[in-house]
Amino acid sequence: MSTAKSDLSKSTTKSQDEDVEEEPSTQPTSIQVLQDPKSSAHEEAKEPVLLETEEMIPQVKKRTYISCPPQGPLNKIITDGIIFILIWGILWTLSGHEVLPGGNLFALLVIFCSAFLGGKLLQLIKIPTVPPLPPLLGMLLAGFLIRNIPYISTYVHVQATWSSTLRITALTIILMRAGLGLDPEVLKNLKTVCLRLSFGPCITEACSAAIFSHFILKFPWKWGFLLGFILGAVSPAVVVPSMLFLQESGYGVEKGIPTLLVAASSMDDIVAITGFNVFLSLVFSTGAVIHNLLASLKEILFGVLTGVVLGYFTHYFPSTDQEKLPKRRAFLMMSMCIFAVLGSQRIGLHGSGGLCTLVLTFIAGKRWSKDKVEVQKIIAKAWNIFQPLLFGLVGSEVSVSSLESNTIGISVITLSLALCVRIITAFLLMSFAGFTYKEKIFIALAWIPKATVQAVLGPLAMETARLNSLPELEVYAKNVMTIAFLAILITAPNGALFIGILGPKVLTHNEPSKLHITLSEL
């Protein structure tokens, strides 16, 4: 019996060893050693294999960096560089001198890269407890330097037609983001406070700028109101990130101050752009004033009706059963909006395209509900491409040598007086709205930054005067563009600093609610 038991024990041990030897084909070696610690002989046999494997791993990694041909990041850099050179070569075969120094494509590439680097360098400037400075300021200065450095400006020059088309396209993307950013529920909850902040400061600043420019700059009344509505727009590119910075930190959340300013910034731009289009038609049209006003009302009506029709069209096309639905919606919307704006410029209905874009995107966003966020992200990516081009081109339009000695001084005086009227109006309109004295001061000072709309609309009057061959109006148009440039340069960084410094000091601190945090996704 003992012999049988011994034989049985040996056969069992032998079968277990066979199982252990078969196991490496299906499991890692390190797991084998952990699972069978009792078999010391087998473990010693496996140990050299483990050490050899561990030693070989870093050797393989080293070979990937020093191998020939190169691998990894170096290979990617070389590949991307070759692709860029080949694309540039293909463009050279198609357009010839346009991609060489002095051509439009070469100038656009230089302006884009310079503006992009200018924005990145400005983001490196960080002040504790203060939101970062808007990168658009660095983009603007980059374009300004390109224009005013003698040797570079000789070879970097963009034709007016190319520059105008790109700026109008950038304006279209701004309007799309404004239309999609309007939340009906937020507007319903804020009611009259949002409407007062959207319409009041913009209209009063436009009227005061018209008066001051008429008596200081000797502008005609039409040009004064044209300038006023350019200056009357607040910049969501500065206000929205700064407000979200405070909101995530819990400042002013209880009274909804960040939500109020985010929602009102889009409507403020709509009012300014609409007023600008009306007076642009009045400035460059001939005939009686009443006839011109009726023509402007027709443009507004045509733009709104077209936007309603196209907006309801996007409710059903593309259908919800299609693949990559947000991308298809975004591409369809961008195509319709850009065609509406550029097409209206082509047929002479300057004010119709912008209103069509706003109405179209607002109606489409109401239907898409939560899916609207994905479309907004795609539109934001398109804006990241056009933003350096926009501000770089605007900066390159301002030439120091062409400015008169007293132009900058009286322009700053006109801008400052109109800005004071805006601040006082915003403070008074926030009365009887449940805000404290300090909160009203904060809202009034947070409502001064200007950037995106001024960058688009500022040079538009100059281009219209050139297209209509009206050299006598180019003097006014040049002054308008200069004041718009100075408005961005002065108010954008100061507005961001006011919001970042005063916000934590004057606003009540509370834990941010989930309802308000969801705004950061937009």
From TrEMBL:
<dbReference type="Pfam" id="PF00999">
    <property type="entry name" value="Na_H_Exchanger"/>
</dbReference>
<protein>
    <submittedName>
        <fullName>Sodium/hydrogen exchanger 9B1</fullName>
    </submittedName>
</protein>
<dbReference type="GO" id="GO:0015297">
    <property type="term" value="F:antiporter activity"/>
</dbReference>
<dbReference type="GO" id="GO:0016020">
    <property type="term" value="C:membrane"/>
</dbReference>
<feature type="transmembrane region" description="Helical">
    <location>
        <begin position="194"/>
        <end position="217"/>
    </location>
</feature>
<feature type="transmembrane region" description="Helical">
    <location>
        <begin position="300"/>
        <end position="318"/>
    </location>
</feature>
<feature type="compositionally biased region" description="Basic and acidic residues">
    <location>
        <begin position="39"/>
        <end position="48"/>
    </location>
</feature>
<keyword id="KW-0812">Transmembrane</keyword>
<feature type="transmembrane region" description="Helical">
    <location>
        <begin position="164"/>
        <end position="182"/>
    </location>
</feature>
<dbReference type="GO" id="GO:0030317">
    <property type="term" value="P:flagellated sperm motility"/>
</dbReference>
<feature type="transmembrane region" description="Helical">
    <location>
        <begin position="223"/>
        <end position="246"/>
    </location>
</feature>
<keyword id="KW-0050">Antiport</keyword>
<dbReference type="GO" id="GO:0097228">
    <property type="term" value="C:sperm principal piece"/>
</dbReference>
<keyword id="KW-1003">Cell membrane</keyword>
<feature type="transmembrane region" description="Helical">
    <location>
        <begin position="137"/>
        <end position="158"/>
    </location>
</feature>
<comment type="similarity">
    <text>Belongs to the monovalent cation:proton antiporter 1 (CPA1) transporter (TC 2.A.36) family.</text>
</comment>
<keyword id="KW-0915">Sodium</keyword>
<keyword id="KW-0813">Transport</keyword>
<keyword id="KW-0472">Membrane</keyword>
<feature type="domain" description="Cation/H+ exchanger transmembrane">
    <location>
        <begin position="124"/>
        <end position="493"/>
    </location>
</feature>
<keyword id="KW-1133">Transmembrane helix</keyword>
<dbReference type="InterPro" id="IPR006153">
    <property type="entry name" value="Cation/H_exchanger_TM"/>
</dbReference>
<dbReference type="InterPro" id="IPR051843">
    <property type="entry name" value="CPA1_transporter"/>
</dbReference>
<feature type="transmembrane region" description="Helical">
    <location>
        <begin position="106"/>
        <end position="125"/>
    </location>
</feature>
<feature type="transmembrane region" description="Helical">
    <location>
        <begin position="408"/>
        <end position="429"/>
    </location>
</feature>
<feature type="transmembrane region" description="Helical">
    <location>
        <begin position="270"/>
        <end position="294"/>
    </location>
</feature>
<feature type="transmembrane region" description="Helical">
    <location>
        <begin position="77"/>
        <end position="94"/>
    </location>
</feature>
<feature type="transmembrane region" description="Helical">
    <location>
        <begin position="441"/>
        <end position="462"/>
    </location>
</feature>
<dbReference type="GO" id="GO:1902600">
    <property type="term" value="P:proton transmembrane transport"/>
</dbReference>
<feature type="compositionally biased region" description="Polar residues">
    <location>
        <begin position="1"/>
        <end position="14"/>
    </location>
</feature>
<feature type="transmembrane region" description="Helical">
    <location>
        <begin position="482"/>
        <end position="503"/>
    </location>
</feature>
<feature type="region of interest" description="Disordered">
    <location>
        <begin position="1"/>
        <end position="48"/>
    </location>
</feature>
